[in-house]
Amino acid sequence: MSQDLRSTPAARSSAHAAQFAGANETPSRAHRTAPLTHLCDALDAMFEACVKFPEPSDSTFFARSMRIALAEAAANPDLLTSAQREGSTENYRRHLLAADPHGRYAIAALVWLPHQASPVHAHHTWCGYAVLDGTLSETVFEWNGAQHCASATRTQARNAGAVSFVRGGKGGIHRLGNCSDAPAVSLHIYGVAGAQIATHVNDIVRAADAPALV
Ligand SMILES: [Fe+2]
Fold first, then answer.
1. Does residue 212 lie in a domain region?
2. Residues involved in crosslink (3'-(S-cysteinyl)-tyrosine (Cys-Tyr)) (predicted)?
């Protein structure tokens, strides 16, 4: 396994810039796969069940339901088309899969070729992800408000089927990357409208020591 996951500041900046460069147009409902339609239906039902909450993602029901929906979607090999599994040699690539017409969520597939990684980031909104193919490495950071930087606490392998959900804010800082020699694909759901996915999700933070993912 390589340790080269673009951990320098310049590379992190480049990685962030490239994250959204490969975004596709949002496919229409008619072009969704059946499993993706099922996932959207599950998300719609979740929001309708939480309609009385000022912020649905604050509820334990929402977090639990999101993990279940992600796991179910990740277990279906027909969730993505072959085009939605295509990567980019420039950096990890995002394919926007669906956007809620009410602006409550957007769904994307991220394709990670070997040794590609995200920058260290918190989130402006809630987000959940599941690993569909391959193995990702995730380093988790904690925020030091006094020093205004993040410090790594642990790194763990995230194999196919792994699911995560975090609320917005500096309590969920992490970096994802692919340390393996094979491509990896992950499914991400964010609490933003489709048009905001490039600007209102990742909150890039300074890391005191951002070790290469292992
Ligand atoms: Fe993230």
1. no
2. 127-190
Segments forming the whole domain that contains residue 184:
2-204
Q: What is the amino acid identity at position 46? A: M
32 Cα: distance to centroid of ligand 1 (angstroms): 24
- Do the bridges between strand 135-144 and strand 149-159 make them parallel or antiparallel, or are there none, so unpaired? antiparallel
Domain tally for the chain?
Answer: 1
pLDDT tens profile 157-205: 999 999 999 999 999 999 999 999 999 999 999 999 999 998 999 999 9
Q: Cβ(105)–Cβ(43) under 8 Å?
A: yes
Please check whether residue 214 lies inside any domain of the structure.
no
Q: Does residue 16 form part of some domain?
A: yes
168 Cα: distance to centroid of ligand 1 (angstroms): 10
Residue 82 belongs to some domain of the structure = yes
**CATH number for 42:** 2.60.120.10
The pTM assigned to this predicted structure is 0.88
Is residue 126 within 8 Å of 188, Cβ to Cβ? no
Question: Quick check: 14 pLDDT over 50?
Answer: no
Tell me the C-alpha distance between 12 and 95, whole Å: 20
